[in-house]
Write a structure and sequence with these properties.
alpha/beta; about 25% helix
Length: about 210
Amino acid sequence: MNLHVRPAGPIQTNAYLLTMPERGEAVLIDAPGAVWPEIAPLLQKEACKLTELWLTHGHWDHTQGAAEVVRATGAKVRAHAADREMIESPEIMERFMGMRLNLEPVKVDHWVVQGDRLTALGEAVEVRHVPGHCPGNVLFYFAGQTSAYVGDALFNGSIGRTDLPGGSFEELERSIRTQIYTLPEGTRVYPGHGPATTVGQERRGNPYVQG
């Protein structure tokens, strides 16, 4: 499995394109604005069809490019229902952000829940619900790859902000301790912004939530 990290959009949100040329398939995790021109050449080069788009949560910077990706590929969308309103009626984010964001609603084909077991690119994937940054933040854990894609729950040396509607530091702290720090220490953590880290590094050194 190949991993392509493509920061995109106004605030450089990480999009993660996972490809499996041997199977001719790919999965995209999060779709910031203008991400399609970044990933389309990669799909063509590796002769892969994008079959699924997974949204770690419903905030605008992770979904701004989702409608374009779906139109171009027909990919099926997965997300958590706690963020349904933001994903299907994104104008509410324009109201609380106080700016035009040029968002389009996205139809979610499958709503994920805590403990879901998915199969993608020949790999087993576990879904864990990690609210606190926003109600519907989830992570996707690839045990075979010892990697977790966590959205904005946890960053390298930091955590997601909790001052937006639906945010709660207490809830986020609990999510990090019970859903992220319980993963194997060597698990590579891929956040929504910035560089990757590991569970062990954050448990020992994160200044906001230590294990």
